[in-house]
Design brief:
This protein is of the alpha/beta class. The chain has three domains: about 80 residues, no CATH class; about 180 residues, 3-Layer(aba) Sandwich (Rossmann fold); about 60 residues, Arc Repressor Mutant, subunit A (Orthogonal Bundle). It is about 45% helix and about 15% strand. It has 17 helices and twelve strands. The strands form two sheets. A nine-stranded mixed beta sheet has the order 1-2-6-5-4-3-7-8-9, with helices on both faces. A three-stranded antiparallel beta sheet has the order 10-12-11. α9 links the parallel β5 and β6. α1 packs across α5. The longest helix is centred in the N-terminal third of the chain and has 18 residues. It is elongated and about 85 Å long. About 40% of the residues are buried.
């Protein structure tokens, strides 16, 4: 898609770097004015109308100041392996271009897939339960194995679990963040972001050098939902960022899915209400999402009968057959099978080595997917 009028990418970037300017204002200026030079010659009252105020934003040598800011941003981006994409570039995600108030400039570290590639957003609470963790892993792993991009927000909890599951499955995931890419808050998030960018991408509408502010997170959420064809909410309270993302998905005319949870759990209150009010499709397995979106149902290449894929001795088979997707404590396993715990620990360890069971915190065990 060609740039409008006589604008250059440098001018668009420079305009977007002005303090407090909004993405929608940048896009309007670019589409309604012939160039940055023409815009800067506009009488002050007209600049006020489009939300641009001179004063500190437009000192006497504004064009030079914009050029300096642009050069500095390029240097920061180069230092952090970040590239800049405008709304009019061919690799700008096509679904994101369709939303209300799409970002005019995106900062990207990593690899963007085809602009119309299949993508699903997974969001949820930061303080998820074991149920939420296992569900996020299950959905993200499934999507990764059928080449669907998993989009989330690199926050603790469901977001991070989804990203890590995709990385482990060598799939593609996008992390949309609420700061400049060089200002990711924690060392752990930075480590995961680096892993993500090897095959997928870390994405922000905020320039390098910009810290995360409270107002940035809702803006970030509109990108999480907007870049994908559907959004899955896994565990959410009655209020919170996940429900903001869900609202954006509905406003953007995207499919919304919610995983039900226990009716007495505060962490499932939001998802259960989304289903009750008819705002979200109830999903019990990731295949529901694929079928609702009308995509060809693909069998995950890693799906297998784990019990038949490995050889089990009699003790291992007894333990394996007792387990299910519901966590069970080691004391209960010992009691039901009448096996001393010291013997049971050896058997459980062997089953873990074979990759067919998983241990959860608190000495609880489940079958692996």
């Amino acid at each position: 898609m060609p740039l409008p009028n006589a604008w250059t990418r440098e001018e668009i970037l420079g305009l977007s770097l002005l303090p407090r300017i909004k993405a929608v204002t940048v896009r309007q200026c670019v589409e309604q004015r012939a160039s940055l030079g023409e815009l800067l010659q506009t009488p002050l009252p007209e600049l006020d109308k489009v939300g641009i105020v001179r004063g500190s934003l437009f000192p006497s040598r504004v064009q030079e100041n914009i050029q300096v800011a642009t050069q500095k941003q390029h240097e920061l981006c180069e230092q952090n392996s970040v590239r800049i994409i405008t709304f009019w570039d061919d690799d700008y995600p096509s679904y994101l271009r369709e939303i209300y108030y799409p970002p005019t400039v995106l900062y990207v570290r990593g690899v963007l897939q085809a602009s119309d590639a299949a993508a699903i957003s997974i969001v949820g609470t930061r303080n998820c339960t074991d149920y939420g963790k296992l569900t996020a892993e299950r959905y993200a792993d499934y999507f990764a194995h059928i080449n669907v991009i998993v989009v989330s927000g690199l926050a603790n909890g469901v977001d991070m679990i989804a990203h890590r599951a995709v990385v482990a499955a060598t799939g593609i995931t996008y992390a949309v963040i609420a700061s400049g890419i060089d200002k990711i808050s924690s060392s752990y998030a930075n480590t995961v972001a680096a892993q993500i960018s090897e095959r997928g991408a870390v994405i922000s509408e905020y320039s390098c050098g910009t810290g995360a502010l409270p107002g940035h997170f809702p803006q970030r959420n509109r990108i999480i939902s907007g870049i994908a064809q559907g959004t899955v909410v896994i565990e959410s309270g009655e209020k919170g960022g996940s429900l903001i993302t869900a609202k954006f998905a509905l406003d953007q005319n995207r499919e919304l899915f919610a995983v039900p949870g226990r009716i007495i759990s505060d962490k499932s209150r939001g998802t259960n209400l989304l289903i009750k009010r008819g705002h979200a499709h109830l999903t019990l397995e990731p295949q529901d999402v694929i079928e609702t979106l009308g995509w060809v149902r693909q069998q995950s290449s890693h799906t297998k009968q784990l019990a038949l894929a490995v050889e089990l001795n009699a003790s291992e088979r007894r333990v394996y057959e007792l387990l299910s997707a519901e966590p069970i404590h080691i004391d209960d396993i010992s009691g039901q099978l009448a096996v001393p715990i010291h013997e049971l620990l050896v058997t459980l360890l062997e089953l873990e080595f074979k990759g067919i069971i998983r241990q959860l915190p608190g000495k609880q065990f489940i079958k692996a997917e």
